Amino acid sequence: MTKETKIRFQWQLNWKIIIFVLFFLPVTVSLAFWQLDRADQKNNLLSIHKDRANADPILFSEINDIYTMEGDALNYPDYVRVELNGKYDNQSTLLLDNRVRNSRPGYDVISLFQTNNRQWILVNRGWVAAGLDRRILPELPLISGKIKINGYLYRSPGKQIMLGDDPWTKGKDRIVIQSLDPELISEKLGINFYKFSLRLNESEPGALTTGWPVVNVQPGKHTGYAFQWTALTIALIILAIFANSNLGQLISSSRR
Prior knowledge:
By secondary structure, this protein is of the alpha/beta class. The chain folds into 2 domains: 23-54 and 214-256; 80-200, no CATH class. Helices cover 33% and strands 25% of the residues. The chain contains 5 helices and 8 strands. A 5-stranded mixed barrel has the order 2-3-4-8-5. The longest helix has 39 residues, at 15-53. The protein is elongated.
């Protein structure tokens, strides 16, 4: 009777697989941690929004005395409810393109607002639908005279990636823009706007269809993506072990 030779674990290097895994493993690990970091950021934003949404509005003129805009996120006036006294400048209105609601394309209407103490801020009055012919811009209700408005401050994301340069398509009194960048708009119009825009409350003068999501992607989805990248990382490690050893043969022989 022949005695079976016992198979022992041993490494059998497969350099193609090793190079493949060494290339992609740092990528999957980095993406997993990045998604976890994004989830943490979104949770912080939701927490800040919840706390500040229930607070009483403060005068816009007092913002710089309260928020230093340095260091910790709590030193920035994201989602702070403010009250402004002044008037809309109806000479030019900005139409922020590619805003979709209920599967309908449209614009966010951005009006120029000057406070009584001559500060300028961009006011997002809300959404309007785009027509079938995009060359025809929507007619907008204009608000004249001195008024008081309330809303919350919003910091636009960094310069967005677009196909080509922002065209700043000019109409008679409406300008179509592709991103809400106060610095760029200040440069184009020759007016020094505040770094944050104001998102108008629905009951305020000039308000259109308001109501914006605090975050476009919920923290849970980022966590789910992180789990997927982690699973892929584990799969790469398992692939490397099986492709560079006789582990598969050992498992097969143990089942006989």
